Structure formats: C-alpha cells, structure tokens
C-alpha cells in the first residue's frame, strides 16, 4: 500500500471502531425503531405486524394521554433546565473566585451529578414520603401544604417532585461546564474593564455574559434535549401517575411499550418526540448563527 | 550527511497554493537558511522535507533517493522545533535517549551517546531533570541535544531561537554555527530574522509568498538582490526605495534632482520610471553646495553611529553615518551617492534591472 | 459594600449550595442507620437517638445485592475500559486529522445523543437475542459502550487538543510511527484525561437502568439499579434496607467522582478554550 493511501486511510482506522459500534447498536436500531411507527406491532400478539401507514399518527391527534404528556414535557423541560441553569450559573460564579478549601467545596457540590439517576429518584421519593422524609412536614410548616402529605400522589403537584430531583441532580452539570468556560476567560479582560471603571454588575453583563454566550447556547441546547428524553426520574418516582398526570413523552413511550406492549404506537410517539427535538435544536443553531452574524 | 533535492515541489492546504514550483538543491554539509516573512511557507517547506506534510506535487530526494513515499521516521532527519517539543513526562536523559531507544541501540551505547552530547551542550548536570524544571535557554539546548545524539543525515531547524531573549539568541547563534562546523552535517534553518540568516548561513534561500525569490550566499544576496523583496528584506535599517526616472544619458532623477549617474543600461525606454534602491550605509553626508541638498528630518543615534532621516522633495530616505558633526532637524545637508551604490528595479514587477 | 460583607455573603451562598447538594445523601445515610423500631417514631428527626448497622448486615447477607454489586462492577469497569479506548482513538482523529466525511462522523455522534433511547430497546433486543447477548453481562457491555462512546470521544478530543501537535511530530522525527508516538508520548500525557473519561463512563454505566431492566431479566445477571428497583417494588416498606442498599450503590461512583472531578473541569476547560 502506498504511503499516500495509508495516510488517507489513517483517520478512518482511528474512528472505525466507534463508528461501527454506534452504527450497529444505535443507528440501525433507530431506523428499525422508527419503521415500527408505521406498523401495527403489539408484543406477544401474533396477528400484529401489518403496515398501517400513518394510522398511529392520526390516533395520536385524539389521544388525551399524548397531549397531556406533550404539555408536561414542555413544563418539565423548561422549568428543570431554567432552574438547573440559573443555580448552575450562580454556583459557577461563586466557585470562580479563589478561596481556601475551594477544591473540597467544589467536589462536594458536584457530588449529586455522580449519583445514579434512578437513585436520585428513589432518594427524593423517600424525602417526599411523609413517613420517613422531612419535606412534607417542612412544606406544611412553611404554609405551602395544607397537610403534610406526599405531593407525589397529588395529580396537581406530583410533577414538581421529579422536577425537584432533576434540579438537584442537574445543577452540577451546568456549574461544571460554566465554571470551565469562566476559567478560560483571560483575567486581563476583567482587569481592563475594571480600569475602565466598570463595576462588578456591569462587568458581568458586558464582559462575562457575552463571552459565555456561545458555551451557554450549546450547553442549554444539548441539555434541553437530554432532559426532554430523561424519563428515569418520572418512571422511578411516580410511574407517570397518579392517573398519567405526570407522564412526559419519553415516560409515556416507556409505558406504552412496556406496559401496554404496543410497540407500534410507542414508536410513533417517539418519532414525534425526535422530530420536535431536532426542530428545536435546528432553531437554536439558526438563532445562534443569526446572533453571532450580527455581533 | 546528505544532499536534499527538491524539484517543482508544491503544496496547497485547500485555501490556495502555499508553495509553488520549489526547485532547490541543498548540498552535503551545507548550512542553508530558509528566510522570509511570517506566513510565506518556510515551515511548510521544512515540514515537507521532514515528511510531516505530503507534497501536493513534485519530488523530494534525499541523497538521490525519492522520499515522497517515505515516512518521517525512515528519513533519518532530526528536527528542532520552535516550541522545542520536549516530552514533558520524560527527563532530559530520557528525552535525548528516545530516538536511540526507538532504534533499539544497546543501552551502553545510548548512555555513551547521550552523555557525550550532554557534555558538548553543557547539560550534564541537568540530565535527570524534567523539562518543567529548566529555563528557556536550557530547554533550547535539550532540543539541540535531542537532535545531535542521533547523528542524523541532516538537521532541520524551525525558528529554534525565536523564544529566547536577545542575548541568549546571539550566544546560541554562535553555538549552533560551531556545532555545525564540528559535525559538518547538512542543516536547513528556517528563520524570519535576516540577522540570523546573514550571520549563520552558507547560503540563504529567500522565500516570499510560497515562491523562491533568490538563492545565494548572504553577501551575494545583500550586494546583488534579484528583486525588491530580497533587497528590502536584508539590511537594517532597510534599503531606501525612491521613485526615480532614468534619462537616456544614465542620469537618475529624483524629485527633479540628479542624484547619481549610472552607465546607461541597454533596453530601457528613455526617461523610464524606475525604483531606485540605496543602502543607507552606502550614502554619505557632504555640504549642500557640492551635492544634492536635502533636509534633515530626524536623527537617531544607534551607538555605533547615527541614522539620519532625510526629506528629498516629497520622498523620505534614511542614511547611516559614523560622521560626528552636529546635525539639527530642519537643517539642509548635502547627500552624496557613490558610484556603484544605486540599484535599479522595475517598479511594476519589482525585478532588478541594473 | 464592604469586603468582609461580600466575603460573608459568598461563604453563606456556598454553604447553602453545599447543604442542598448533601442533604438528600445525608438523609439516605441517616435512614439507613436508623433501627427499625425508631423508623416511624423518629422519622423526621435529623439524627436518630440510636444508630445501627443492621440494615447493612441484612442487605449483605440475606439479599442478592452482593451479586448485583459484582455484576455492576464488571459491566461498568469493562464499559469504562472499552468506551475509553474507542473514544480515545476517535477523539484523537477528531483533534489531529482533517478528513473527508469528518463533519458527518461528528454529526452522527451528535444525533446519537439526541433521540429517546426507549425507541431502540425493542430493536436492540431483537438484534442481541439471537446472538445470545440478552441476559448476559457481555450484551450490556456492548450496548453501554456504544451509548457512551460519542460523549467520551468529544471529551477525549478536548484533552488531546490541549497537547501540542509538535510532540508527536517530534516523536515521529525521532523514529516513531504515529501509533508509537501516540502510545509513548501522547497517551502518558493524557492520563488525567483518560481517567476522567473512564470515570465518567464508569459512572454512566453504573447508573443505567432501562436497558439493564429490559435486556436482562434473570437475577444472576442483574445490575445494581435493576436489582434495587426490584427490591423497592417488592419490599416497599423496608426503608432501612432499601436505603442501605442505596448507600452501597453510591459508594463506588461517589469515590470515583471525587477523584476525577478536577480533571473533568480541566477537560471541559480545554474544550471551551477551543470553541
Ligand atoms: N495545516 C495547515 N492548514 C491550512 N493552512 C496552513 C496549514 N499550515 C500552514 N498553513 C498556511 O500556509 C501558509 C504558510 O504557513 P507556514 O509555512 O507556517 O509559514 P511560515 O513558517 O513561513 O510562517 C500560511 O498562510 C498558513 O496559514
Ligand atoms: Mg513557521
């Protein structure tokens, strides 16, 4: 083999193991999974398997469960990401200035990120349990709850349980990413701004935020997609209940597939979720492009 | 020791040509400087010789053998990087042994070679240190040491001194020259610094915009530059360039004044516009009456002498003199241009015409 | 505002964050140490009047958790190893080569991080079942390695970007092939990055629930999350034992995380500098 050819092939040699694996375990199954959306596919039902075209998508239009889950997905994602981001940014700013013991504090506040998702769910479910958890009593004490009950069994409040767990669990991710971005801002920019007479708030708005904006845009986008897909907390804490009041689309898909065994319909809902997320990601990228063009 | 031959070598990264039609023969034992401004393609040319980049076209030969298809590791060339590229996790000894271990030489031989090179460069006391614990100058020496232990066919240097302060740079210039004399190895030395090129090289290859402008000994390039680029690149303060017309009789007229006379060149139209090049140190001050009157604009003492900025009509020029007479801005002095000093260039193409 | 006041505010805010981060874990630990007879009476006290290790003893002796723990350890360690190896190679290619189709490769890896994984559970089951890779630890390792490689590759890329290209070029001039240069010069310098990436993947594999639940139904090959969830739905009132098991599930990942989190920030910083 000539050296020119060998050099041309070298990058593929390095990427091939990952690519093959991802293609075999993720992409091909994804295509198969999407094709189920157009089939009547019920597990353990030997009569199913016919091609049904867009029937599942028509069915979705009249499915209250789908619309509730869609609404919940928006609330769940928007509230979780906004709170994770807000607190994450504050935490990153607090950690960006040196103080004694910073290494230890940083390790401790980042710890929730290492907690497995299902375990965060279980832990918070226990915290909300009035028998062994303090939260209902505290909320009652603060006058937020009429009686110290488990909010997870109240259809109107239950979604806040998983959201609380999600915020607790997700703050470190934003804090780590934003801290990394903050630490890459050269310090002399701040000094120059301070020499120009800018106070801390102005410096934050005029220097820090614009420099962080690209990181923020990408991180928030990726995280939003991720949180929208993240069903584990809901499955573990409420199983989508009571009475499907806390289903988000991804947990609804899970329920459809593994409790009702309706893989065809579940795949159709998953296809819709995927489309919505791709549209969202594309919109963010376009917006970011427009913003950077103008700046 | 080796000859390196490039024929019609070109390179393009996809954004237009970076090197065009490079023809060059580097002789055995020669010290050649690749000189040119930043971005002109010097490093690319060096990396092509090293095998770190693939040529877009043309042939590269080492000792007559075509090496286009030979990996860097099999070319037996040593390279000293601008960043030194010392392996941070290895001691100085390990850094210098790396290439020899790679060749599976016996341990005793490696030790002997490394310690010999270290002695030559004054690194013996530093052998067990990591690069982090060395000063800039010491790191530079380790980079040199890593190259010389191998006894390679040729040395490639990519601006090896540009991260050192002025004093160290001068000292290393001398040491590299001395090493070259001792080892006699073919060396290709990339630099944007004309002083380095002038003082170190047997021959200079002047490179601009991806093309070779001129190849020759430093003195040759200094005295007989082939074009405006080479003329302007060498020399400090740089050569003066004036817009002039060349009359049929050989008179060089600048701003209505005849500055000098040259033998009338053949083939130039009468009253042709030319660019007149004058080296500041070839010019002399006289009294205004017996030469061209000019006005003093500014005087800069350099220690050895003075650089005098002169205004001649709307044009400016510099003159270097060791004359100590008092000079004040605004004063009118005489400028004398000795015969042989004027160099003439075509203002359009920049090539030398006389 | 005076300097002391700002500093006090800063410390107070950080203390609030630390308390918020640790409180749920503290509660987990507290309940796991509370004796059964005090469980309800002292349910909401900050610390029980008596502590016991009985729950841990029961979990370790009378349940299958030691087995689940071992399974999880095997799966997570193997996944960490394989995913980090594959991701290092890909991340190295991303950082050092320009090649045809690179944008596509990166795009594929990004897309793979965007869709609801639920949708591929059934297809993966159908793919692995005939190969005998369901109800098997190997099957989980294969699946987890695929899931974690993309992000790990981007992480490794940012670690490689922080190492100057000159270094492997110097090694190549010194007689090494690119692969030897990678092994002898670049990888030793990326050790913190490798540790961070490996730890990250280990944690992710340790935490995975859905596929473990769906692909492996036999207890002999259950991982800790699946086992714990099964335990919770069966013995949903035995809080002490559940939480003791929870604490045990947390130990390896918590320890790992405390060791590597410093390098994670470093890796992300390197990436941020670039982009
Ligand atoms: N890897 C590369 N990819 C694209 N362009 C490059 C690359 N390396 C160098 N160039 C371009 O080639 C030109 C010559 O670069 P270089 O040889 O490094 O210049 P010099 O060493 O003379 O300063 C520059 O315009 C540079 O931008
Ligand atoms: Mg260069």
TrEMBL record, chain A:
Q: Which residues form a coiled coil?
A: none
Keywords of the record: Cell membrane, Membrane, Transmembrane, Transmembrane helix, Transport
Provide the ABC transmembrane type-1 domain boundaries. 70-286
Identify the PROSITE patterns for this entry: ABC_TM1
Superkingdom classification of source: Bacteria
Concerning Pfam families, the annotation shows:
BPD_transp_1
Gene3D superfamilies per record: MetI-like
| Membrane-traversing stretches | 12-38, 74-95, 107-128, 167-186, 207-228, 263-287
Q: How does it sit in the membrane?
A: Multi-pass membrane protein
Which PANTHER family would you find in this protein's record? BLR7065 PROTEIN (PTHR43005), SPERMIDINE_PUTRESCINE TRANSPORT SYSTEM PERMEASE PROTEIN (PTHR43005:SF1)
Q: Which family does it belong to?
A: Belongs to the binding-protein-dependent transport system permease family.
- What is this protein called in UniProt? Carbohydrate ABC transporter membrane protein 1 (CUT1 family)
Q: Which organism is it from?
A: Nitrospirillum amazonense
UniProtKB/TrEMBL annotation, chain B:
Query: Which BP terms does GO give this entry?
Result: carbohydrate transport
Any idea which GO molecular function terms this record carries? ABC-type transporter activity; ATP binding; ATP hydrolysis activity
Q: Name one GO cellular component term.
A: ATP-binding cassette (ABC) transporter complex, substrate-binding subunit-containing
Q: Does the keyword Transport apply?
A: yes
User: Which family does the similarity line name?
Assistant: Belongs to the ABC transporter superfamily.
**Has the keyword Nucleotide-binding been applied to this entry?**
yes
What's the name of the protein?
Carbohydrate ABC transporter ATP-binding protein (CUT1 family)
Organism of provenance? Nitrospirillum amazonense
Q: Where, if anywhere, are coiled coils annotated? A: none
- Residue intervals of the ABC transporter domain: 4-234
Q: Which Pfam families match?
A: ABC_tran (PF00005), OB_MalK (PF17912)
What are the UniProt keywords, alphabetically? Answer: ATP-binding, Nucleotide-binding, Transport
In the record, which residues are listed under signal peptide? none
Automatic annotation (TrEMBL), chain C:
Q: Which GO terms describe its cellular component?
A: plasma membrane
The ABC transmembrane type-1 domain, residue ranges: 69-260
Pfam families per record: BPD_transp_1
Keyword terms = Cell membrane, Membrane, Transmembrane, Transmembrane helix, Transport
* Xref: InterPro entries: BP-dep_ABC_trans_perm, MetI-like, MetI-like_sf
What membrane topology does this protein have? Multi-pass membrane protein
Keyword Cytoplasm (UniProt): no
According to its UniProt entry, one GO biological process term is: transmembrane transport
Cellular localization per UniProt: Cell membrane
User: What Gene3D superfamilies does its record include?
Assistant: MetI-like
Q: Does the keyword Cell membrane apply?
A: yes
| Source organism, top-level taxon | Bacteria
Spans traversing the lipid bilayer: 12-29, 73-94, 103-125, 137-160, 181-203, 209-232, 244-265
PANTHER family associated with the record: INNER MEMBRANE ABC TRANSPORTER PERMEASE PROTEIN YCJP, MALTOSE TRANSPORT SYSTEM PERMEASE-RELATED
- Which family does this protein fall into? Belongs to the binding-protein-dependent transport system permease family.
| UniProt protein name | Carbohydrate ABC transporter membrane protein 2 (CUT1 family)
According to its UniProt entry, this protein's organism is Nitrospirillum amazonense
């Amino acid at each position: 083999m000539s050296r020119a050819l060998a050099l041309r092939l070298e990058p593929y040699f390095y990427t091939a193991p990952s690519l093959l694996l991802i293609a075999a375990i993720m992409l091909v199954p994804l295509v198969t999974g999407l094709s189920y959306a157009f089939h009547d596919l019920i597990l353990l039902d030997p009569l199913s398997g016919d091609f049904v075209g867009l029937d599942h998508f028509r069915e979705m239009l009249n499915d209250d469960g789908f619309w509730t889950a869609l609404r919940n997905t928006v609330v769940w994602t928007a509230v979780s990401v906004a709170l994770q981001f807000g607190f994450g940014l504050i935490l990153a700013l607090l950690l960006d200035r040196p103080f004694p013991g910073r290494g230890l504090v940083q390790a401790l506040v980042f710890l929730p990120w290492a907690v497995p998702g299902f375990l965060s769910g279980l832990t918070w479910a226990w915290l909300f349990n009035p028998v062994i958890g303090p939260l209902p009593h505290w909320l009652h004490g603060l006058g937020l709850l009429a009686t110290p009950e488990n909010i997870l069994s109240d259809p109107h409040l239950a979604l806040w349980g998983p959201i609380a767990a999600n915020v607790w669990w997700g703050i470190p991710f934003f804090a780590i990413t934003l801290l990394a971005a903050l630490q890459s801002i050269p310090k002399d920019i701040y000094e120059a701004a301070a020499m120009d007479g800018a106070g801390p708030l102005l410096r934050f708005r005029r220097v820090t935020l614009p420099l962080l904006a690209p990181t923020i845009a990408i991180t928030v986008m990726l995280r939003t997609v991720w949180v929208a897909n993240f069903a584990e907390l809901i499955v573990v804490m409420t199983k989508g209940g009571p009475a499907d009041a806390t289903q988000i689309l991804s947990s609804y898909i899970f329920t459809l597939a593994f409790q009702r065994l309706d893989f065809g319909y579940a795949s159709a809902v998953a296809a819709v979720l995927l489309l919505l997320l791709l549209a969202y990601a594309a919109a963010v990228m376009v917006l970011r492009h427009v913003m950077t063009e103008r700046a | 020791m080796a000859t390196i031959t490039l024929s019609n070598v070109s390179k393009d990264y996809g954004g237009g040509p970076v090197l065009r039609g490079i023809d060059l023969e580097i002789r055995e034992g020669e010290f050649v400087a690749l000189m040119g401004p930043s971005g002109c393609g010097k490093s690319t040319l060096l990396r092509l010789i090293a095998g770190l980049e693939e040529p877009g076209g043309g042939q590269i030969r080492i000792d007559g053998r075509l090496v286009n298809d030979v990996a860097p590791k099999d070319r037996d060339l040593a390279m000293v990087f601008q960043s030194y590229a010392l392996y941070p996790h290895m001691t100085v000894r390990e850094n210098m042994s790396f290439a020899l271990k790679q060749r599976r030489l016996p341990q005793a031989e490696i030790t002997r070679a490394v310690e010999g090179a270290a002695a030559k460069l004054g690194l013996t006391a530093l052998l067990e240190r990591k690069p982090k614990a060395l000063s800039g100058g010491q790191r530079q020496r380790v980079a040199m040491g890593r190259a010389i232990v191998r006894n390679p066919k040729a040395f490639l240097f990519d601006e090896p001194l540009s991260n050192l302060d002025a004093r160290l740079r001068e000292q290393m210039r001398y040491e590299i020259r001395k090493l070259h004399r001792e080892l006699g190895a073919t060396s290709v030395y990339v630099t944007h610094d004309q002083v380095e090129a002038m003082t170190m090289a047997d021959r200079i290859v002047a490179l601009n915009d991806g093309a070779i402008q001129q190849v020759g000994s430093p003195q040759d390039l200094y005295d007989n530059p082939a074009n405006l680029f080479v003329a302007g690149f060498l020399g400090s303060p740089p050569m003066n360039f004036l817009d002039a017309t060349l009359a049929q009789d050989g008179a060089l007229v600048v701003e209505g004044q005849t500055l000098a006379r040259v033998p009338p060149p053949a083939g130039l139209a009468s009253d042709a516009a030319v660019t007149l090049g004058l080296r500041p140190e070839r010019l002399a001050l006289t009294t205004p009456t017996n030469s061209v009157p000019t006005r003093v604009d500014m005087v800069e003492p350099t220690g050895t002498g003075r650089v005098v900025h002169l205004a001649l009509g709307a044009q400016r020029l510099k003159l270097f003199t060791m004359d100590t007479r008092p000079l004040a801005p605004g004063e009118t002095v005489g400028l004398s241009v000795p015969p042989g000093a004027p160099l003439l260039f075509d203002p359009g193409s920049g090539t030398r015409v006389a | 505002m005076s300097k002391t006041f700002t500093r006090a505010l800063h410390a107070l805010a950080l203390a609030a964050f630390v308390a918020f981060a640790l409180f749920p874990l503290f509660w987990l630990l507290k309940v796991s140490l509370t004796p059964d007879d005090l469980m309800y009476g002292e349910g909401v006290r900050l610390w029980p009047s008596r502590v016991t290790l009985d729950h841990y003893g029961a979990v370790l002796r009378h349940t299958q958790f030691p087995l689940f723990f071992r399974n999880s350890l095997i799966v997570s360690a193997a996944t960490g190893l394989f995913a980090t190896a594959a991701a290092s190679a890909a991340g190295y290619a991303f950082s050092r080569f320009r090649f045809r189709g690179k944008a596509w490769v990166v795009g594929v890896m990004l897309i793979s991080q965007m869709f609801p994984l639920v949708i591929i559970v059934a297809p993966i089951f159908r793919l692995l079942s005939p190969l005998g890779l369901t109800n098997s630890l190997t099957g989980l390792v294969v699946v987890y390695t695929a899931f974690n490689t993309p992000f790990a590759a981007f992480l490794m890329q940012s670690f490689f970007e922080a190492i100057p290209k000159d270094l492997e070029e110097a090694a190549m001039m010194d007689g090494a092939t690119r692969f030897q240069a990678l092994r002898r010069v670049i990888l030793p310098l990326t050790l913190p990055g490798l540790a961070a990436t490996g730890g990250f993947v280990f944690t992710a594999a340790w935490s995975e629930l859905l596929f473990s639940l769906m692909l492996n139904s036999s207890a002999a090959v259950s991982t800790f999350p699946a086992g714990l969830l099964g335990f919770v739905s069966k013995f949903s009132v035995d809080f002490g034992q559940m939480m003791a098991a929870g604490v045990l599930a947390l130990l390896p990942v918590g320890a790992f995380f405390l060791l590597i989190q410093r390098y994670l920030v470093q890796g992300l910083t390197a990436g941020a500098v670039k982009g």
